[in-house]
């Protein structure tokens, strides 16, 4: 039984009209999901305002309405709760409704522009190897132990999130490793959660369409650390100058990791090849299956987190050495053709630069680097010319193509990218809007030993065009095309 008065614990109430002892049959923030005896919470969104759907939610059976602005006419049969911030209240309501599941787990959130999925995926695997059952909430998939559940968002909405955490705790998970996207933090999807710790990987250019300015984007990430309790740890990448900003106002225990400076957790890159990385961590030399300096940061973040969760250092390093990269992150596509094809989720300028620099560092002779790249529609437009420019600087040939155009015209997205291609690089680029054709083109112009990078979609198994998700898997397409060319 879930009584309204208990569910409202910790929400900032302004007024209540009606019965606080109402027994709730459910909670929802979408009127289309409202049902008999449920609580509907009206949230202001980016497309519309949930307050417009209060009548519809009541018509479908809602007996409690939580909102920031009360309707002009109140019904006797409904309890109305006025709060200062519905989205934030939703976080607490969802936590309370599911019995505060985060308090039953050691919950660690990872935020940052790049590396979140990699870090949480490594943590989930590591803790499995250390003998724990743990949960995972990531862009690629959600997991309860080894059971895989599909993910729709990097960070689920507050209701889905708390439902999943409850399921994890009920099924005996001791830990959960989750990504906290900047969208989720500002939309308070994580409000009310009890974190054991939070990790900051890095911050670079992305999502300015949503946050408006880079400062607002930084503030969004910082909110996660500002909200941590003193019992939690805040672990930040010291080599990113915004790491210190994340720690400015936190009550949590401050910890840092670095490849360059003195800090709590330090690593040195001993060797870096297409087979993996050799790092020295705490004076121990360890081999890892992940590729690229940027993954040295992810591995160090994972190591630091595990140690802060009281796991023994040597055992952590032994087990971490055996973990696999996340799907679609620097994934080599096997082939007999001799062409080295890599699928990677780089969809920001920084990620693309890191991946291409890593690829360049592996060149031993005259191998050509061909990059297939597009940019997502209805997302930050300012990253488009930057991603094209970086691709040109660090590749021999660039095929500009489509990513997920969503509701934009693919050619308009490519034109935005072309503004980043200076005259000296015109001849390096080809425009092939159809992604499969673009991959075919890249492979057809490559020879054994050459490297083809297919960037931007990583693990995704669809291409989103005009609201429809068409099956499309870079790895499968690359495999098919390589096979066809080797026959
Ligand atoms: C831009 C954005 O983040 N949007 C998210 C947001 O929706 P919104 O604010 O746009 O909602 P809205 O459509 O304006 O509706 C406002 C309210 O009216 C309600 N409504 C609406 C219609 C109706 O008939 N009845 C009704 O009650 C809605 O349920 C909502 O509560 O809140 C919704 C519920 O949590 C999310 O599903 C939705 O994600 C959209 C689909 C999305 O694409 N989000 C992406 C950008 C996102 O969140 N990405 C991050 C990762 C980014 C990264 O890489 O770092 C993620 O965490 O996945
Ligand atoms: N620590 C890092 N620093 C910079 N780039 C990285 C780092 N880790 C991974 N990358 C690059 O960023 C891409 C995305 O990595 P990952 O999926 O781990 O990040 P994410 O933060 O979860 O991204 P998203 O915001 O889309 O969920 C990788 O494919 C790789 O190209
Ligand atoms: N979480 C990111 C993923 C981008 C992936 C890329 N393939 C694209 O569609 O832009 C976003 O929603 O902006
Ligand atoms: Mg992710």
Automatic annotation (TrEMBL):
Gene3D superfamilies: Mur ligase, C-terminal domain, Mur-like, catalytic domain, MurE/MurF, N-terminal domain. Its cofactor is Mg(2+). Catalyzes the addition of meso-diaminopimelic acid to the nucleotide precursor UDP-N-acetylmuramoyl-L-alanyl-D-glutamate (UMAG) in the biosynthesis of bacterial cell-wall peptidoglycan. The modification N6-carboxylysine is found at residue 221. ATP binds at residues 112-118. It catalyses: UDP-N-acetyl-alpha-D-muramoyl-L-alanyl-D-glutamate + meso-2,6-diaminopimelate + ATP = UDP-N-acetyl-alpha-D-muramoyl-L-alanyl-gamma-D-glutamyl-meso-2,6-diaminopimelate + ADP + phosphate + H(+). It is found in: Cytoplasm. GO terms for molecular function: UDP-N-acetylmuramoylalanyl-D-glutamate-2,6-diaminopimelate ligase activity. It is an enzyme of class 6 (ligase). InterPro entries: Mur-like_cat_sf, Mur_ligase_C, Mur_ligase_C_dom_sf, Mur_ligase_cen, Mur_ligase_N, MurE/MurF_N, UDP-N-AcMur-Glu-dNH2Pim_ligase. This is UDP-N-acetylmuramoyl-L-alanyl-D-glutamate--2,6-diaminopimelate ligase. PANTHER family: MUR LIGASE FAMILY MEMBER (PTHR23135), UDP-N-ACETYLMURAMOYL-L-ALANYL-D-GLUTAMATE--2,6-DIAMINOPIMELATE LIGASE MURE HOMOLOG, CHLOROPLASTIC (PTHR23135:SF4). The keyword ATP-binding applies. Meso-2,6-diaminopimelate binds at residues 379, 403-406, 456, 460. Pfam families: Mur_ligase, Mur_ligase_C, Mur_ligase_M. Pathway: Cell wall biogenesis; peptidoglycan biosynthesis.
